[in-house]
Amino acid sequence: YQGASGKWIGPNIMPEPINIKGSYQTHASLTSNGKTIYFSSLRKGGIGGFDIYKSNLKADGSWGEAINLGPEINTKHDENSPFMTEDGATLYFSSKGHNSIGGFDIFFSKLENKKWESAKNMGRPINSTADDTYYFPYNNGKNALYSSARPEGMGGNDIYKITFLDEPEFINCNPLALSPEQYQKKPVSVFFNSHDTIMNGQAYNFDGSISQIKDADIRDYFWNMGDGTTIKTGSTVNHTFRKPGTYEVKLEANAMHNKLLTTNNYCVKKTVTVLTEEEIIPYLAAIIEKETFNQQLNKNLIYASTDNIHSDEIEDEPLAQIEGQKPKLLQKEIVGERVILEKKSTEKYKIEKVYYNLDESMFVPESKQILDNAAKVLHDYPSLIALVVGHADSRGNSNYNQILSEKRAQMVANYLVNLGVNSSRITSYGRGDQQLLNECASGVICTDEQHRINRRSEIQLKDSQELSKSK
User: What predicted TM-score, i.e. pTM, was given to this entire model?
Assistant: First the structure.
């Protein structure tokens, strides 16, 4: 199409290596940026009959070599009518191979880390025993047009429109009542792992990746979090409940049966209790109290009076100190660090702060040693539980800062878990920009160094045994 004159111009033959002598090309699809063309071709060196190839546009305006998409896409039979989605992530095409119901069926494959996944049949009722070709999705994938020669049509190849349902129904959901091991022994095993009791304002993980259905592939996972939120992000989701209460979380899995090529929905549900910060501490303490500990809080502690310690013996700030009290108890040696703990105290223990660069959720590299030492404290004192509180500076809107502070706290918690600290001993949450340590509120002009003081996470340790006794 010639934009300046507004007139159609005649078609131009695509050059080599797309069209070559002795070959036959039937259909092509150009990516949204115009830099890659996918096309079907019957030529020497292919895997079967018609194969799907791609060619990339070079800097000089010529087209690069024709690259066969390989056995994940092409078979010894014919592949035709490729269509690449606008985001460049999913290829739709027709094939007489793979697990076709009959004739050409419509398949799709996703491009992950520059590799094509195994092709998946779109299934009934889209595909039939006749030829189904030229699949064209639009409206963000909610609709599609394609050609089908099915016998109930008006004759030959007819054009059909598909409308995909926006929302899952979440009906006939079975309550989760068995262990993961018990579920995995069943032919239909749709299950998700999560905490039964969590804290409001903190992001928690809900993991349905262990779900499996015999002779079927799970195509989509839909989550209903019970608080008005519906999510389609895959088998695993992170979610933050903003208010305490009881919520019914549902997972619906949409599966394609490999032999019948029909789809079915399977739904499970679980009740999750969301507590406030004040409520969750005694709850965590009760859990930790039930565990068998290899060490006790007061084991192998070395006591000394501060009167007997000279200032030149303490070079740096201690790793941990009792909040609101003057330390009077030194020191258990942990990899060269001094740890100050108060025996039989229910006061908070406060680890040095972890800091962040602007608009980042990963702590700065120099904070790594602080967290490594914190993990050692938790390993040495198994009765301690940890609260990780994330904070943001005042720049940005409050909603964004709240989410960022939650991510920062979660990143610290994940780091401690990776160092071997049991996740049941860690609770993380964010305070956004609500607890600034200086005058740098929104609208106040401050240097970045002043703002940096507020971009932090703090770790508070509490003795679960003492908390349990004080209830």
Answer: 0.48
CATH class of 24-163: mainly beta
Q: Which CATH architecture has domain 174-275?
A: Sandwich (2.60)
DSSP code for 207? E
Among the listed residues 240, 223, 241, the one whose alpha carbon sits nearest the alpha carbon of residue 232: 223
The total of other beta-carbon atoms located within 10 Å of residue 358's CB is 12
Given this structure, which CATH class describes domain 281-470?
A: alpha beta
Residue 284 DSSP symbol: H
Q: What letters, b where the CB count within 10 A reaches 16 and e where it falls short, cover 144-158?
A: bebbbbbeeeeeebe
Q: Is it true that 24-163 and 174-275 share their CATH fold?
A: no
Q: Where are the domains of the chain?
A: 24-163, 174-275, 281-470
Residue-level pLDDT, tens digit, the chain, 471 residues: 555 677 777 778 889 999 999 899 999 999 999 999 999 999 999 998 999 999 999 999 999 999 999 999 999 999 999 999 998 999 999 999 998 988 999 999 999 888 999 999 988 889 999 999 999 999 888 899 999 999 888 988 999 998 876 667 888 888 987 666 676 677 777 888 888 888 888 778 888 888 888 888 888 899 999 998 988 878 888 888 989 999 999 999 988 887 777 778 889 999 999 988 777 766 665 554 444 333 333 333 333 322 222 323 333 333 343 333 333 333 333 222 333 333 334 344 556 789 999 889 889 988 888 888 888 888 888 888 888 889 999 988 888 888 889 889 988 988 898 888 888 888 888 888 989 999 999 889 999 889 999 999 998 877 765 554 554
**Cα within 13 Å of Cα(281), Cβ side:** 22
Q: Give the rounded distance of the alpha carbon of 74 from its chain centre.
A: 31
